[in-house]
């Protein structure tokens, strides 16, 4: 898997991704502390609104900015997005009101909604070989999972030596370093798409999704993955500290177990996809997630003590593994279902549609969980996941699995 880092362009872009992820992780910690400084006991409300703004920006902005920059080369788009994120991050230490946080978070996440799909759409052109691209997807999944573990530990270590305001400086450095690495990378030549009306450019990705049965099926699995992610992200702390009366360290352990399951699958995915079709692998994860959430409801309702804790840790490990089984190969479908010119729009549509699922599942997991209890909300998420699996199956059942795209010749570096 590490062998693909011998490709100098991909090595620089992957390094840029890791550094930007670490910067974003530091930003999340610092933002929570800033919210507490400004709002005190209402910091949770400030963070909740800020995270909602983040999701709204992801859903609404990605297709718009992709349409606006569709005729620009990807390199200046990525550099501009990184510099925009650095500019917002450097402003955050001077914030004194909650509304200022909301505006800056919208601007920062709008830049991220421009950077991420553009970055993801470039990688298939940098790594035209299917096997190398699959290994790159696994590395990317590992990067996301490791960031969720490393960033809080790094922030905790830095906070023993400095004020949290300095964490924003770390974020700025991360985005600037990412921009420098993008500048240093030699991008393959990617022809601009044919000129079209703005509305056509805006809807190109969504229309590609809807006309492709394979990509329509991916929309259902996006919803299934969002049910499990919402249960884990929103309710792990409630489950561990509220229901089980365990410590904050156990919250971290449970979240780490979920991440470990995801990383385990990411490591084995390239070999798995050498022998099995990606859709079969993804659908197995989609079927497993509602079953695991159903078992979560039963474990919470009918077990107690050490057996309950141990069983939940195992379930969280399996939830992470099943979620990664869906997410890691998903970009292979996007690559296969789009031309090089249409790829940014298709990746932007996936970015937008997948985050739209979180706008459904996060409120379900949070609001209904507090009203109805965790077993009941787990059952609601199970029903939601079953709907997603059914939608995917109805689109994939009679659709032959396409032959993997032929390996393309290496492209001229510019």
Automatic annotation (TrEMBL):
Task: Give GO cellular component annotations, separated by semicolons.
Answer: plasma membrane
Q: Which UniProt keywords apply?
A: Cell membrane, Membrane, Transmembrane, Transmembrane helix
The cellular location(s) given in this protein's UniProt record come to: Cell membrane
GO terms of molecular function? transmembrane transporter activity
Keyword presence, Cell membrane = yes
For whether the record's keyword set contains Transmembrane helix, the answer is: yes
Give the membrane topology. Multi-pass membrane protein
Tell me the domain of life: Bacteria
Q: Which residues cross the membrane?
A: 14-36, 43-66, 86-108, 167-187, 217-239, 251-269, 281-302, 314-334, 346-365, 371-391
One Pfam assignment: MFS_1
Output this protein's name.
MFS transporter
What's the source species for this entry? Nesterenkonia sphaerica
